[in-house]
Amino acid sequence: MQIKFITIPITDVERGTADLNKFLRANKIIEFEKELVKTETGAYWCVYINYAEPLPGQTPAGTPLPAKDYKAMLSAAEFEVFTALREIRKQLAKADSVPAYSVFLDAELAEIVKLPAITEQDIKKIKGIGTKRAEKYGKPLAEAYHKLK
User: Fold this and answer.
1) Residues 43 and 84 in one domain
2) What string of pLDDT tens digits covers the 149 residues of the chain?
3) Strands 28-39 and 2-9, sheet pairing
4) Number of domains in the chain
5) Side by side, which strands form the sheet with 42-52?
6) Same domain, 37 and 95
């Protein structure tokens, strides 16, 4: 764990806030405290941040990962299913007014296509997919996919 202190003068809140937000997006924050400090010469925000450094082999939060080429990673048949699942995911996301990645990530869809059968119960077995997401989107995804076949 690491500790960082940031001070933001009241006279330059806009720039200080931008720097603070950039740091917060780039790190996993464990603890965050702020306090407005007033002195004879002015006022400023003092921010205390306790954060975790990424483990070896991990990228810091906010750093984009290199794009994966699922066409190369999956067989031709699996990639065809993957493409169909992405379209279904897009429709589910649009219906709920959420980004597609909040329904299922591409990596999760790539694992779903490797399942022997696409069912809500099997989708729950995929690492990273919790019960709530599987219940909310697993069944509609499976039903929509089976209608395509």
Assistant:
1) no
2) 789 999 999 888 888 888 888 888 888 889 999 999 999 989 999 999 998 876 555 666 556 667 789 999 999 999 999 999 999 999 999 999 999 999 999 999 999 999 988 888 899 989 889 889 988 999 899 888 888 76
3) unpaired
4) 2
5) 2-9, 42-52, 28-39
6) no
Secondary structure of residue 121 in the 3-state scheme: helix
CA-to-CA distance for 27 and 61, rounded, in angstroms? 5
**Domain containing residue 140:** 70-148
Q: Tell whether 93 and 34 lie within a shared domain.
A: no
Instruction: Give yes or no: residues 75 and 48 share one domain.
Output: no
Q: Do the Cβ atoms of 104 and 129 come closer than 8 Å?
A: yes
Q: Are residues 80 and 117 in the same domain?
A: yes
d(CA 123, CA 116): 11
Rounded to two decimals, the pTM is 0.57
